[in-house]
Amino acid sequence: MINLLHSLGGGKKNQKGSGLFLPFLSIFALLAYLSFEVSFPLVKPIAWAALISFSIYPLYLRMRRRRPFRSSANLAAATITCLVVFLVLVPCFYGIFLAFKEGARLHQFFTEIMAAMETSGDGALAVLLPENIVEKIRPWMERYPFLRTWVRQGASWGTSAAIEAFGSTFSYIYYFTIIVVANFFLVRDGHRIVRFLQEIIPLPPGESEVFLNRARQILKAVVYGVILTALAQGAAGGIGWLIAGLPSPLLFGALMVFFALIPFLGTAIVWVPGAAYLLAVSDITGGILLLAWGILVVSMVGRFLRPYFISGGGNAHLFIVFIGVVGGLAAWGILGLFMGPLVVSLFFFLLENYRVMWRAWLESSGHGLTE
């Protein structure tokens, strides 16, 4: 191929090279398109596998130094993949199952409230809710009947989502299998993949190495800085929710994990309404306790852990991270929380390289820039 491209020199060789290059380019484009069509359905599970393998690759390197795994990359990769399956993926899927179970329980609770209001009136409603809440809700429900419809629709949405999720069990198993298999090969051959990418990136050797290092730093900052911090905040928030005596701590802890991933919202969007509810039902102790827990524990976990994890990371501007997280979430779902900041940060990295090269060309050609 190199000789073919070099043959694009002058004269007859140029014409001959062009005659060979165009068919090659056509075949290459056709195969690239077909390969894209084949692999596109697997992009998301492979991307998840890449994130997982990136996170555990340092542990894989440590295992390779040990005697049982020193002579067998396959054994080391298989062992660490099994550890990921049993210690990470299985608990995650089980947590999702419990979250859906909690959501279904809440739907049943709201359904009972609506049924009580429609059949037995205020007497049955008072059994389901505190008396002071009933007194506050009754005039609103009587004055605005559409509120009852909104609550019923919102509650039914959670059950519909749970039913749809459980109905997609085969898809989850299929994705799970792809993630596990891809994770094995990405862990085992990660160094070869990085070397291959470094050779095909259209940058000078030094710049391609810097580019890949920047990608590694950004992923490290996102995975360890954002995700682990969000998980810690969600766990702390769920514990506070349980201590305050509120129902479904697992579900609302998962919601705190989700909102902790979104800049400028945070976990307060969950625990502040919870504390307000406790204060509204005259549970002053529980409301103040949840407020204090959210401010002194949940928020402090984010403030202390996030800088610790991100220190020495991608050094990306907060606005770039914001665009990547929010835009990635809108475009690719949860996967976008990881890939969004990576894509946007690498784009600005290449843009900065272009700016430097453009300035250097202008200065070398005598077209200096005025500051």
Task: Sum up the structure in keywords.
16 helices; 371 residues; mainly alpha; single chain
Can you describe what's shown?
Helix content is 85%, strand content 0%. The chain has 371 residues and is mainly α. Among the domains are: 2-41, no CATH class; 44-200, no CATH class.
Short description:
The chain has 371 residues and is mainly alpha-helical.
Q: Multimeric state of these chains?
A: single chain
Please give the alpha-carbon distance between the first and last residues.
45 Å
Any idea what the radius of gyration is?
28 Å
- Judged by helices, strands and strand pairing, the structural class is mainly alpha
The fraction of residues in strands falls at under 5%
Helix proportion: over 70%
Main pleated-sheet profile = none
Mean pLDDT: 76
Inertia-based shape: globular
| Series of H and E elements | HHHHHHHHHHHHHHHH
Can you lay out the helices and strands and say which pair or pack?
Layout: H1 2-6, H2 11-39, H3 43-64, H4 67-70, H5 73-119, H6 122-128, H7 131-143, H8 146-167, H9 169-188, H10 190-200, H11 205-243, H12 249-260, H13 268-280, H14 284-310, H15 318-332, H16 334-364
